Amino acid sequence: MADEFGIVRDVTGLAAERNAFRYRNVPVVVRAEAEADPVELARVVLAGLVSGAPITISSAASFSPHEEDALRAAGVELRIDDSDTWHAAAAGLRDARIRLLGGRAEHLLSALGGRPDIAVYDGEVTEAGRVELLLFLREQAVSITAHRFGTPSALVEALPLG
What we know:
- There is one protein chain.
- It contains six helices and nine strands.
- The strands form three sheets. A five-stranded parallel sheet has the order 4-3-2-5-6, sandwiched between helices.
- It has a domain of 106 residues: Rossmann fold.
- The radius of gyration is 20 Å and the shape is elongated.
- By secondary structure, it is α/β, with parallel strands linked by helices.
């Protein structure tokens, strides 16, 4: 995170523009179905915590009191939902990302009705933190003209882009 996604780059090096390429965290709902692997859930949640993204876990299975305490202390919102409750909650989301663990996406996608504002990630959890982090990040490019009619502007140089 610190070496790749947590820094702002200007790879163009243009004097007339500042071009900031950066990543910003986004909220993610992690749905853990009953058959979800706890190690995979931990891997995904840790990626989200590293990114600083707001995380909500909707789980079909309950957590131990120790696990609940640890997750809540880390700022994770927890919900225990059966399938019907989960599908109703998911249908109420707007502009959301969902990481599905241990289940088939067909039922969820049916409940969502093919809405384009919700992205469902149901692929296998990878051991590569760099790959799992991408779910919790939005790539952003910011371009600022650094001149006025060809005259360099010192004001633009003072703008923080990070």
